[in-house]
Amino acid sequence: MFEVKEKPRLVERAYLLSVILRETERSEAESLLNELEELVSNLGIEIVCKHVVRTRKTFPGHLIGKGKFEQLLKDVQSQNCDVIIFDNEISPSQQRNWEEASNVLVIDRHEVILDVFAERAQTKEASLQVRLARLEYSLPRMRRAWTHLDRQRGGGVTQRGEGEAQIELDQRMLRDKIAKTKREIVQVATRRETSRKKRHRIPLPTLALVGYTNAGKSTLLNALCGSTVLAANKLFATLDPTSRKTVLPCGKTIILTDTVGFIRKLPHRLVDAFRATLEEALVSDFLVHVVDLSNPDFEEQMETTIEVLSELGAQEKTILTVFNKIDLDGTTTNRMRANVLCEDANFISSHTGKGLINLHQKIEFLIEGKMETKRFLIPHRHYSIISRIRKEGCLKSEEVTEVGILVEAFPQGKLAKELKKYANYEKK
Ligand SMILES: Nc1nc2c(ncn2[C@@H]2O[C@H](COP(=O)(O)OP(=O)(O)OP(=O)(O)O)[C@@H](O)[C@H]2O)c(=O)[nH]1
Ligand SMILES: [Mg+2]
Q1: Are 183 and 280 contained in the same domain?
Q2: Are residues 312 and 397 part of one domain?
Q3: Which of 179, 217, 277, 358 is 20 to 30 A off residue 186, Cα-Cα?
Q4: Strand ranges for 58-145 from DSSP E
Q5: Order of strands across the sheet with 206-211?
Q6: Rounded CA gap, 216 and 292, in Å?
């Protein structure tokens, strides 16, 4: 029976292809192919060849014209490749046509991204969401598996053979699985929501680190919080949101959340699937958009992030843009380009720590703007609490009066609770 689960990892040698319609698309296609190469090698597959192929128009059968198609097939065979990977989205029927002609596995960028996500997913929710995305991806492609079966049985072109009936059965099973997975996701998400609400009972300002994959979000989280969240030089190192509490140099406590990175041409079903995972980011007070300044495509990467954020409904949030990895970028050109794109650009290196003091100040400034200032009257004999307010960095003003010290402050957490009793003095 056809089971949608891990694809057997029998393939070892990949042939990467990107199809473009205009010559002007070539350089972007090349950069996307490099990214695809990185994703594919993360899966342990060797890249033998990568080509950008230009076509006058797209052909429904094989995406490209017959001449080019045959030429490429020969090349795939002579190079002994066992998988062809398209950077373009290909339809289930194009996939089938290529597989039948080449006798090797044919997949596209979406499937590669789904595979990488499947490998990295660690929490129950992430695994369920990846499973859902893969099931949905497989639904229109079931025919492919059964065509192979028919061929193996020597069926060839059948009218309504065993395979055909089996497809319907399996599709129904798959739909049931999809529905079941969706139900499980709702359950897990409800549990997560409850624990988030609990965490937020004592309101602390929250910031979410968002950005393109490999930009350095986890490294920045570690640098700001002194934590050891996994940061690695591979795409999609982080899949599950991780939150850390940290105290800023001024004494204020904040919660920082690391999130999954974005990528160009992110499969749409993954954007949907990860909506819940990114909810932490969506409910946070501010977003810190981390950009890898040393990447030649940083502008496109920024654009992708902003696009996905608006798809998720987060475009209205206050965003602090941070250009990271300045230690790798020796040129001033990128900085100039960054300044054009972003009026209030922050330049940092999460590795060397350069720019972090400035970033701390910016974060403090943001938080102060958001926090509600309250007035308290502290009796003289309780003066020690004022030193605590000062130490936690939330003192705005103080005025000594006959009855006590009149304080304007924006306290958080425990201190806010303790100060409550001094807040109602006007009514007394
Ligand atoms: N030279 C240099 N490397 C950095 C800097 N910040 C991060 N890196 C490196 O960049 C790579 C990616 O860093 P991560 O922090 O894992 O990136 P991320 O944005 O969390 O990536 P995903 O979780 O995949 O979305 C790692 O090898 C880091 O060591 C920096 O300021 N300078
Ligand atoms: Mg990360």
Answers
A1: no
A2: no
A3: 217
A4: 83-86, 105-108
A5: 242-247, 253-258, 206-211, 286-292, 318-324, 346-347
A6: 7
C-alpha 302 to ligand 1 mean position (Å): 16
Q: Which helix (H) or strand (E) holds 363?
A: helix 356-370
Q: How many Cβ atoms sit within 10 Å of the Cβ of residue 358?
A: 12
Give the position, in ligand 1's atom list, of the atom nearest the Cα of 219: 15
Q: Say how many Å lie between the CA of residue 166 and the centre of ligand 2.
A: 42
**Same domain (yes/no): 170, 224:** no
Which mutation among 39, 113, 218, 264 tests ligand 1's pocket best, with the greatest number of atoms within 8 A of CB? 218
- For residue 99 the two structure tokens come to 């597989």
How many domains does the chain fold into?
A: 4
Mutate to test the pocket of ligand 1, among 214, 257, 359 (most ligand atoms within 8 A of CB): 214
Q: Is residue 320 part of a domain?
A: yes
State the average pLDDT for the chain.
Answer: 82
In 87-205 the beta strands, taken as DSSP E runs, fall at 105-108
Residue type, 74: K
What separation in Å is there between the alpha carbon of 230 and the centre of ligand 1?
10
Q: How far apart are CA 20 and CA 108, in angstroms?
A: 15
Rounded to the nearest angstrom, the distance between the alpha carbon of 236 and the centre of ligand 2 is 7
- For residue range 83-101, list pLDDT tens digits in order: 999 999 888 889 989 999 9
For the whole model, what pTM was predicted? 0.76
pLDDT of residue 239: 66
pLDDT digits (tens, 9 = 90+) for 302-315: 999 998 888 888 87
Q: What is 174-228 written as a DSSP string? A: HHHHHHHHHHHHHHHHHHHHHHHHHHTTS---EEEEEEBTTSSHHHHHHHHHT--
Q: Of 200, 220, 246, which closes a domain?
A: 200
Could you tell me if the CB of 244 is within 6 A of ligand 1? no
Q: What is the pLDDT of residue 326?
A: 95
Contact 184, 192 (CB under 8 A): no
Distance of CA 411 to the CA centre of its chain: 33
For 8, other C-beta atoms within 10 Å of its C-beta total 7
Q: What range does the domain containing 139 cover?
A: 121-200
Backbone φ and ψ of 137, nearest 5°: -65, -35
Q: 311 and 231, same structural domain? A: yes
Give me the residues near ligand 2 (ion), CB cutoff below 5 Å: 217-218, 237-238
**In whole angstroms, what is the distance from residue 314 CA to residue 393 CA?**
29
Check pocket membership of 289 for ligand 1, CB cut-off 6 A. Answer: no
